Structure formats: C-alpha cells, structure tokens
Amino acid sequence: MLHLNARSKAGLYTLLLAVLAIFPLIVEESNLFLTVDVLIAALFAMSYNIVLGQTGLLSFGHAAFYGLGAYTVALLQMHLGWPIEVGIVVAPLVTGAFALAIGFFTVRVSGMYFAMLTLAFSQLIFAMVAGWYSFTGGDNGAPVMPPDYLFDTTNFYYLALGVVTACICFIRLLVGSPFGAALAAIRENPERARFIGVDIRFYQLAAFTISGALTGIAGALQAAFHQMAFPSLLFWPQSAEPVLMTLAGGIQTFFGPAIGAALFTILNFFVASYTDYPLFVFGVVVLVLVLFLPDGIVGTLFSKERRYRPGAPKDGAELAVSANAPKSPKGAPS
Amino acid sequence: MWTDIFIQILSGVSRGMILFVVASGLTLIFGVLRIPNFAHGSFYMLAAFVAYAVTHAVGGSNLGFAASLLMAPLILGVFGLVFEFMLLRRIAGRLHLYQLIMTFAMTLIIADGIKMIWGGAYRSVGYPPLLSGSVEIFGRPFPTYYLLVIAVGLIIAGLLSLLMERTRFGRTVSAAVVDPEMVGALGVNVPRLYTLVFGLGAALAGLGGALAAPVGSVSLGIGDSIIIESFAVVIIGGSGSIPGALAAALIIGVVQSLGIMVAPRLAIAFVFIALCVVLLVRPQGLLGRRV
Asked: What are the boundaries of the region Disordered (chain A) (predicted)?
C-alpha cells in the first residue's frame, strides 16, 4: 500500500493548495459552485472527525451545530442587521457555547448512549428552531443577504477556501499537539488514559466544544453561500452526513473525511440529477462501503496510517461500543 | 375541564400504546441485542404502507383490517430476518458504528423503495367498519378504535414479558447477549438466535405500523419521528426491559398529549426533556437492571 513520508506529504499538500488556488480559472462556474459545497462539506466532516476519529466519541447530533452556525449568520442579519462576515466570525462562538452546554451533559455517558443523547439534544434544538416562527421564521427558513461582492461565485470560492484552509491548519495543529495526543489516548484506552492522569471528561468536553465551534463555521458558510438557513440543516438525517463522509474517507486518517465529503457531495449532485431515486442509490453505496471498505478510501490506500483494526474492538475502547457491550456480539470475530 | 383532561390522557395512552408496540421491537433489537437499528422507524413506515395495500386489496372491510394486522408483521418479520441474515450478520463483531451506518443506509433504501412502489402521495386507510364508531366516556365520545389499540398494546406487553422472563428462549437470549461465547459453547446457535430476535423485533414494528395506519395518514416521513421516540422509549425504559418500555411509552404518549393542550409548538420538546432528565438522573433507565 501507499506510504508517503513527511516531505512528499508536504509537497502534495502544497500542490493541492496551488491547484485549488487557480481552480476558478480552469473550471466553469457550475462546477465551481459544486466545489464550494465540497469545501464546506469537507470542513464539516473534518471538524466532526475531531470527536469521532480523534477522540472516539460517536456524536449523532452534529447537525445541531451545523444548523446553529447557519442560523447565527441569518438571525444576526435579520434582527440586528449585522453583515454576514461578522456572522461567520460570531458563529463558532455561538455554536461552541451550545456544544459546551450539550457536551457538559453528554460526555457523562459513553458509546451508543452518547450517540443517542447527542441525537436527543440536537432534536430538541431542531424542534425549537423549527417551532419558533417569530424568531427564526420556522419552516420557511431565514433568508441571508450576502454583500454584492459575494454574489460572485469566484469571490465566494476564495472566501470559503481561505476560511476552510485556516480551519484545517488549526485542526492539524490541534491533532499534532499534546492536547491531540491526550484525545488519542482516550480513544485508544480510556482506562489507561485515566490511570496516567488524563481528565477524560475535560478532554472529551474540550474536543466536543472545539468540534462544535468549527462545525458552526461550516454551517455559517453554508447559509451565506445558499443565502438561506433552513430547519432541515438541524434535522437528524443531516447528522448522519458527516458520519458517512468520515467513514467513506477513513476515520483514522486526517484528510479522509475531506475526501469522503468530496465523494458524497459530488455523488449527491450527479445522482440527484440523473435519477428519481437518489436515496436508494446512496443507500446502496453506503452498504457497499460498509461491507467492503470499512477503513474508508484513504484508510485503505494508506493502510500504514491505520492505528487499529476495526475487526477487533478493544475492550476499553469507547468508540461506538455501548456501555455494556458484549466482547463480540455474535461470538464470531470477523 | 377534568373530563377533558381525562379524555386527553386516555388518547395519550392509546398513542403511547402504538409507540410501545413499535418500541418494544426496538427494545429487543437495541436494548437486548445492542444493534442500534436506525431502520426501525422505516420498518414501521413500510408496514403502514403494506397495511394500506392489504386493506385495499381485500376491500377495506373488517376482514381487510384483520388481514393487514396479520400480514404487516409477517412481511416485516421476514424482511427483518433477511436483512439480519444477509447484511448485519456480515459485520457482526465490528464496531457498532458500522451497524448504525448500515441500518441508516437501509432507511434510505426503504424510503425510496416505498416511493418506487407507492409513489410519494399521502394515503389513508380508515378505521375498520366494526370499530369506526365511538364510545361514551364520562359523557364524551372516545373513538372505539383507540380502545382496541390499548388492548393490543397490553396483550403484546404481557406476551413479551412472559417470553423474555419465563421461557427458555427468553433466558437463552439474555444469556447470549452477556456471554455469546459461553452460550455458543453450550450448544446454542447464537447467530441464529440473533436473527430470530431481530426478526421478532421487526415484526413488532410491523404490527405497530399496521395499528397506526388507520389513525393518521400513511406517508413518507412518518418513520422520522417514531424512530427518535422509540430510541427515547428504550433509553428511558431501561435497555431490554419490556415493562420499562411500556412505562416509558405511556409517559411519552401522555406527556405529548397533554403538551399539545398546553403548548402545541413545544409538545415535541417535552419528549427530549424527559429523555435528558432520565439519562442524567438514572442513566440505566427507569427499570434498567444494569448500572
């Protein structure tokens, strides 16, 4: 399998960024439009992977932060008249605060219970946003009015590219820091992490908060780009999206979620325009991925980057293992 | 005033009973087997469409209703068996995340599958003629059909409790979940046991769907809210506990029913508040045994 050293990796990233920088010159506008969606989805998925891949927490409620980020931009403009640039800056603060509050309650439980509790909280926020007509516009959504220069897809593309690149650099620094190492320790073995003095709940809460804040930036960009914040951005199927993207790209890889995001966004675009039954096609694609590519695309290509074998979940590992999980549910380790 | 509240509670109980029948299936699948089956709400939705098809094929009579009550659980039960045997079994032993994603994929496939067969339009089934009237309770009319729903819910609760607590099958299942290797070594075919329980759970979603079909409209999207409520029932009730699921479903049904009276827009939020409170105060659920 492929294996890159640090130097060729740096070269690859520089090349990627250079290609992205001149992208508006080489593709037509409709494709550039799609590329902006890919950038936003990539940020969403990579922010999400801070909790799933790095910390081993299966959150099933990240749609709440995505939607809240979008609504922050829309509501600040609607009620206070603040421009969307300010909204994009304020969004992570708002969603981070929500993530801190939700995480405060949810990190007390683990595994599937954590997933279900995050789902419950996000549905609560969805119900509030969808029901509070006078403040959020309810089902009709809240309109966003970008400034003139951002109506141009190329300009918005550069804004999105800048913001997303900055966020990804931040995530890279985070993952490589002692803080990131502590998160990885919690993922690999919470018992041992506790034993060597890691305050597990504190680190989980911090990871959840940072992840929620970054997800809010993705949501803010989404609302600004599509000029609308909709309640469906907070609805639970939206929470499955970053999970699928991350899984498709590779949970235990850094850029895997972005690759998965690109795959799903582009697939979504073409499937929706060529068939009447896009969900069916999606479902089959996901089934095939789970059955045949459990490590994801990037995870399979660069198998050396894999840090554990999904076939053998460790006893203490919290990653999606329920609180009272049997050692192997069917006595048949795969 | 008080009679109104009583009638509202009673209709909440019947709502809760449908939720219980559906959620009792999830209690077996998620609470006992620990498979986070996101497709459970889709099973329910599919069953409602099957009930619609069967009722119309037979002619909308009492017989048609009875046939739908029989066929929907049967078809969904077989569907569940096949789904577990063909797909879920292949990823057994991997992280639960993969099961969650696989069942999520199934929700997408079922949603569009229904669209292919029945189209996206709303359908209605209607009460069976025998139960279409209402009975008078404290001078207020109350739909007879709701009484049937309550009766069916109680019967299912009784039968399932007996099955899980009093039979060899139930005890083998409980044991197999705690220590599959040991139970397997004792000569039990553990994978087959899992398939059977999953099929039973899916059949219960089927029965719930058939029971619910005459009450509201049959449409795409009816699975969306019931899946969340069903997970809430399993967690509030305590995983794997049938009496716990009954209590939780009734609490949710009544809370929603009364909530609609007080604050219509926030009725849905009460469920989540109840869920969060229970999880924080008693993480194992109301009647959950394990801590």
From this structure: 309-334
The neighbour count for residue B187, using CB atoms within 10 Å, is 6
- Which residue in chain B is spatially nearest to A283 when comparing CA positions? B105
* B30 falls within a domain: yes
A208-to-A48, A212, A291 alpha-carbon distances in Å: 9, 6, 29
Assign A193 to helix, strand or coil. helix
Cβ burial of A243 (10 Å; 0-12, 13-18, 19+) is buried
Residue B8 falls inside a structural domain: no
Average pLDDT, chain B: 87
Share of chain A above pLDDT 70, in %: 89
- Residue A102 included in any domain: yes
List B137's β-bridge partners, or say none. Answer: B140
**Is A281 domain-assigned?**
no
Please state the domain count of chain A. Answer: 1
What's the rounded mean pLDDT across residues B140-168? Answer: 91
Specify if B231 maps to a domain.
no
Q: A303 falls in which pLDDT band (50, 70, 90)?
A: low
Q: What is the span of the domain harbouring residue A177? A: 35-236
Q: Does A117 touch chain B (CB under 8 A)?
A: yes
Name the residue with tokens 């304020």.
A90
Which residue range is the domain that position B193 belongs to? Answer: 17-219
Predicted local confidence at residue B48, as pLDDT: 94
d(CA A108, CA A106): 5
Q: Check CB contact under 8 Å for A321 and B95.
A: yes
Size of interface A-B (CB pairs under 8 A): 178
Is residue A243 in a domain? Answer: no
Model confidence at A329: pLDDT above 80: no
> Is A279 contained in some domain?
no
Instruction: Please give the ipTM for the structure prediction.
Output: 0.86
* Segment B3-17 mean pLDDT: 89
**A321 contact B CB<8A:** yes
